[in-house]
Automatic annotation (TrEMBL):
GO terms for cellular component: chloroplast membrane. The chain crosses the membrane at residues 100-117, 137-155, 167-187, 223-245, 257-276, 297-318, 355-373, 394-412, 424-442, 449-471, 535-554. It comes from the Eukaryota. Its main location: membrane. Residues 572-615 are annotated as: Disordered. It comes from Gossypium aridum (American cotton). It is a multi-pass membrane protein. The keyword Phosphoprotein does not apply. Belongs to the ADP/ATP translocase tlc family. This is ADP,ATP carrier protein.
Length: 615
């Protein structure tokens, strides 16, 4: 029987050994051949054999397992003939450090900017004259979503005509220019460029329930800042940074260092929160007629611009001095599913339906509480500087909580399993949400008791709402996201790829805009966000209970699939497997050919594919 081994072409071992192939059969005897493990190299090819519990019988009666490897530096596992060992520092290759350290600094700068922008955008649109937190649902649906779609269409066209380097600078430089121009030009001129008089006339005609939609026109430059800050998170982080990181790192480097980026992101959150707090408190040292918020905004936007240019410099340095890894030119077909096709696929699979419910429920729940909380936050801190100072503390606390939860998440998964980890996020959101809405609805009777602690019902609601957001987001980043990605692992390849595409197309936008649409309906129906609070609390309860039910159902299915997968692996351990293909730069384990010693029939081969588990 002839065993065919594939490296990047085909390497056949002839039935009659030649002089070259006789290297595989040294004359030390059968015992040496069974128990020894040697590596023989010639012409860039590494051949080694070792004893295994079950063996494949060759026609000459010599049992062995042979594995062929092409000489590629990207494999990084077996040293090759006459290959010099690469220089290392603290066990890490110098070339890897030249990539990972700049990437870590880029990620820190991007997340540092994002925290400043995220806190500032809420201050601008919520505390502006003639506006309130009611503007946020309308802003997310009718401004942010169309701008995001338009940007991605433009990005797709630019990607077809520009090089990767030119595309990176073309996208990030307008962001840097806009934020610098806003702090030093648009905001100082806001009283002259905002149509305040026209907005007041329209509000008098349409009524207070249209305060949110009209505020978009009233403070249009602030709304533009809000959208650009949102796009910084989705475009610069998701598209530019992770696209560049995936381009220059190998699979082994990504597995080793990508989790550290998540911890570094929370460190950036802590430092940027302190920065926002510092600039927000500058107002205390200024005169009574000085616009303290304008001074604070100039300082923060200067830091954003400086960090932006630092990102550009790091990107240039890596492209200039770091060699990029070689990639295979083979392209995998990606499933392209339209909205209707995605909906049909979601409906057809119970497993995917439950997973989609988790994603949609989180998006709706966090939006229902967050906007209501921000309306109370404005009532407690009407000044932009006070509001911004509180948001700085909020960002710092979120970073610390998320950092701690990430360290604990591995223990939770190991000790209690997927099911418990998946239920922690909705449970946290349910308990803190009930406490938050209870303080809003029944705060007056609790006033005397809260006064003993030096708090009013409004301040207590603000603090409980902040705790709700901090713990919900930290649980989301450390537990919900890993649980969601783990749920794809035991699925077959077709369901896995199509299900993820369907959830990305339908469920993520639905979760983000679903809460905003519900709030818009409530505001237009009951006149204001405050009047809608009892109904929003009831809707939150229904959504969270639906979320918990879907998590329980998904846990049962996930456990069953995992047991089935483990059973299949147990059965395969009894068979003889010859590893044949190991594509460098691919996260998948190569296909394994299963040869039967009693038959030469090719139908006796099977393949196993293991997908990357990026959590």
């Amino acid at each position: 029987m002839e065993a065919v081994l594939q490296t990047r072409g085909l390497l056949s071992l002839p039935p009659k050994p030649t002089k070259a192939s006789s290297l595989l059969n040294p004359s030390q005897g059968l015992t040496h051949r069974l128990f020894a493990s040697k590596t023989l190299g010639f012409n860039g090819l590494c051949l080694f054999y070792r004893r295994v519990p079950s063996v494949v019988a060759k026609p000459n009666g010599v049992p062995f397992i042979c594995k062929a490897k092409a000489a590629s530096a990207a494999d990084g596992k077996q040293p090759f003939f006459n290959e010099n060992e690469k220089p290392k520092f603290m066990g890490i290759e110098i070339l890897t450090l030249k990539k990972i350290i700049p990437l870590g600094l880029m990620f820190f700068c991007i997340l540092f900017n994002y925290t400043i922008l995220r806190d500032t955008k809420d201050v601008l649109v919520v505390t502006a004259k003639g506006s309130s937190a009611e503007i946020i649902p309308f802003l997310k649906t009718w401004v942010n979503l169309p701008m995001a779609i338009g940007f991605m269409l433009l990005y797709t066209k630019l990607a077809n005509v520009l090089s990767k380097k030119a595309l990176f600078y073309t996208v990030i430089v307008p962001f840097i220019a806009f934020f610098g121009a806003f702090g030093f030009l648009l905001y100082p001129l806001s009283n002259y460029i905002h149509p305040q008089a026209l907005s007041d006339k329209l509000l008098a005609v349409l009524g207070p329930r249209f305060l949110g939609p009209l505020a978009i026109m009233r403070i249009w430059s602030f709304c533009l800042f809000y959208v650009m800050a949102e796009l910084w998170g989705s475009v610069v982080i998701s598209v530019l940074f992770w696209g560049f990181a995936n381009q220059i790192t190998t699979v082994e480097e990504a597995k080793r260092f990508y989790p550290l980026f998540g911890l570094g992101a929370n460190v950036a959150l802590i430092f940027s929160g302190r920065t926002v707090k510092y600039f927000s408190n500058l107002r205390k040292n200024l005169g009574p007629r000085v616009d303290g918020w304008a001074i604070s905004l100039k300082g923060m936007m200067s830091i954003v611009v400086l960090m932006g240019f630092t990102i550009c410099f790091l990107y240039w340095w890596v492209n200039k001095f770091v060699p990029l890894p070689t990639r295979s030119w083979k392209k995998k077909e990606k499933p392209k599913m339209g909205t209707m096709e995605s909906l049909k696929f979601l409906v057809s699979s119970r497993y995917i339906r439950d997973l989609a419910t988790l994603v949609v429920a989180y998006g709706i729940s966090i939006n229902l509480v967050e906007v209501t909380w921000k309306s109370k936050l404005k009532a407690q801190f009407p000044s932009p500087n006070e509001y911004s100072s509180f948001m700085g503390d909020f960002s710092t606390a979120t970073g610390i909580a998320t950092f701690t939860m990430m360290l604990l998440s591995q223990f939770i998964f190991d000790k209690y399993g997927w099911g418990v980890a998946a239920k922690i996020t909705p449970t946290v959101l349910l308990l803190t949400g009930v406490g938050f809405f209870s303080l809003i609805l029944f705060g007056d009777p609790l006033g005397p008791a809260l006064a003993e602690f030096g708090m009013t019902p409004l301040l207590a609601a603000v603090y409980v709402g902040a705790m709700q957001n901090i713990f919900s987001k930290s649980a989301k980043y450390s537990l919900f996201d890993p649980c969601k990605e783990m749920a794809y692992i035991p699925l077959d390849e077709d369901t896995k790829v199509k299900g993820k595409a369907a959830i990305d197309v339908v469920c993520n936008p639905l979760g983000k805009s679903g809460g905003a649409l519900i709030q818009q309906f409530m505001i237009l129906t009951f006149g204001s966000l405050a009047n809608s609070t009892p109904y929003l609390g009831g809707i939150l309860l229904m959504i969270v209970f639906t979320w918990l039910s879907a998590a329980k159902s998904l846990d049962t299915q996930f456990t069953a699939l995992r047991r089935e997968e483990e059973l299949e692996k147990e059965m395969e351990r009894d068979a003889v497997k010859i590893p044949v293909v190991s594509e460098p730069g691919n996260d998948s384990v190569a296909n394994s050919s299963l040869l039967n010693a009693a038959s030469d029939d090719s139908t006796g081969s099977s393949s196993e594919t293991s997908t990357p588990r990026n959590i």
